[in-house]
Amino acid sequence: MIRRITKAVAAIGFGHGISIISNVLLVPLFLRFWTSDLYGEWLVLSSVVAYLSTLDMGMQTYLVNRLTQKHQADDVAGYRDLQHSGLALYLAIATVGTVIVFSLSCAVPLKSWLRLEHTGTWTARIVVTLLGAQLLWALPVNFVSAIYQTMGNLARSEWRYQLHRAGVAASTAIALVLRPTPLTLACVQLIPLIASAFFVILDATRRFPQLRFGLRNARSGLVFSIVRPSLLFAGILLAQAVTVQGSILVISSVLGASAVALFVITRTLANLSRQVVGLLSTATWTEVTILEAKGDQSALRFVHHLLLALAGAGSSAVAAALWFEGPSVIAAWTSGKIAPNPMLLRLLLAQTILGTPWIAASMIPAASNRHRRLSAMYLASSVIGVTLAAVGVRLIGIDAVPIGLFVGELIACYHFVPRDACGMMGQEYREYMVRVWSSFLATAVLAGFVAWLVHELAAARSAPLRWALSGASTTVVALVFGWALWLSPRERNAVRGRVFAILQGQPSV
User: Fold this and answer.
1) What is the distance between the alpha carbons of residues 21 and 64, in angstroms, rounded to a whole number?
2) For residue 507, what pLDDT is reported?
3) Cβ proximity of 377 and 416 under 8 Å
4) Taking the domains of the chain in order of start, what are their residue ranges?
5) Which of 111-120, 308-317, 338-347 shows the highest mean pLDDT?
6) Is there a contact between 202 and 144 (Cβ–Cβ < 8 Å)?
């Protein structure tokens, strides 16, 4: 188990590295060839179609969980029927969705609605259609590539996905250098998706000939049985889209495209702390599905506590370093073309890092297909948060957005999500919350103190050296506290034993 998680972490970590590198390189590249206003309009157009990802309706998550369970039960016929039915549904959604996106883009006045001053009417329509097609056709491609994950090889599915993302970043960079127009960018980003689809179909057919992709075994009754429970996952995806894209649209409508560029760049940097949680949650997802299917609550608690320790320590280290060094990172990142807003950055960091415990706990019901209440909590959090942000941004400006999102999460998620997770793991809730929050706050405060100390003592040093010193020192301190505070002596011994077994070439269970 530890070996599989480690391989998955490596694949997902590569993807996060690609994301960081592409952001570091692409933002200055965008601002070199485009004005900040045109870049802001590109972000707004991307946000308009981002809601199309919710047409997945949570089916990817639900189907992968179900297919993993069927593989564990050696139900090849049931696996094939479910796989073909899911693929038929995805192809229908992608085809119909693309037609609808083009029709709507032609029917509505995008230019006036989105306050586009530098993007032409037909350019906006075609860009929206191509970006929408990219998201829609990624749905069946991602489902097809999940075959590796359902077999217990999450790492291979993730490598495919992360290499696709790397291809999108590379094609974007090339297009910006050779022909920096929104239309060119929207076109070239489809190339990696097409290449990825062909690779997966050929490779998976060779590896799993008994599970050939197709539509022959699709069952209409099975298709409809997929949709209903998947709608609960759709609530989670919709909530995430409302939070991420709704914030952009609120800022765009009130403050304009330049404010959108500032917010997106600042949020991207602040979200580095939450990416730690996302990386580890994704890496342990398949293991949680398997353990819950077996009813092994003891192992489930161990995996979750290990996730919490690593995620809590990692997110604390990243947030502490960026709390003091983040403004200088933004200034250097954008070559001074976008002035950093330290208060906005710190509010976003606080909002993301304080959500670490409930985000980590949400993986337990989500990976187990027991997510009815989780979906409602997610959606309530997003609606409350974006509504408060929309009201507050007119009163106090852009700083209202992270405040509103934090209040939404506090009301809907901080208590209810961990409580449900404890019930599924067979763990006493009050003891769990005391342990998690005491360890988390102690780690975050100490990491913050170390980051402040480095910032003050190394103030005369160059910015890159100060960033490196701050990141390294907070990481060491947070990991030491994560090991000592988050894990019990029994859990620490279990980790040592499994790591030693891997180093000695023994199987890891």
Assistant:
1) 30
2) 47
3) yes
4) 1-242, 256-509
5) 338-347
6) no
- Residue that has been written with the tokens 């099975």 in this structure: 222
Sign of CA dihedral 116, 38, 168, 234: negative
Per-residue pLDDT at 495 exceeds 90 = no
- CB within 8 Å of 63: residues ≥ 6 apart: 82, 86, 143, 146, 226, 230
CA atoms of 50 and 16, how far apart (whole Å): 20
Per-residue pLDDT reduced to its tens digit, 356-387 = 899 889 888 888 777 778 888 988 999 999 99
Q: Are 37 and 53 in contact (CB under 8 A)?
A: no
Task: Read off the tokens for 21.
Answer: 């590198």
Helices and strands per DSSP (H, E), number in the chain: 22, 0
Give 30 or 211, the one with higher predicted confidence: 30
Q: Is 397 left (phi over 0), alpha (psi -120 to 50) or beta?
A: left
CA gap 161, 64 in Å, rounded: 15
CA–CA gap between residue 459 and residue 462 (Å, rounded):
8
Q: Count the residues in the chain.
A: 509
CA distance 112 to 495: 58
